[in-house]
Specification:
The chain has 41 residues and is an alpha+beta fold. The chain has one helix and two strands. A two-stranded parallel sheet has the order 1-2.
Length: 41
C-alpha cells in the first residue's frame, strides 16, 4: 500500500513517538524522508 511513497512523520511525546511510526511505515514499504517527535501542549 505504501510501496514507493515518501512519508513525513510527526510523532507525539505523550502518544506514539516518531521513531516507532517510522519503523512501521518502513515495513510497509515507504521511504521516511523526515521524522520527529514533538511535545504538543
Amino acid at each position: 500500500m505504501l510501496d514507493g511513497k515518501k512519508v513525513a512523520i510527526l510523532g507525539d511525546r505523550d502518544g506514539i513517538p516518531g521513531d516507532a511510526i517510522s519503523e512501521c511505515v518502513k515495513t510497509a514499504g515507504a521511504e521516511v524522508v523526515f521524522s520527529t517527535t514533538e511535545c504538543f501542549v
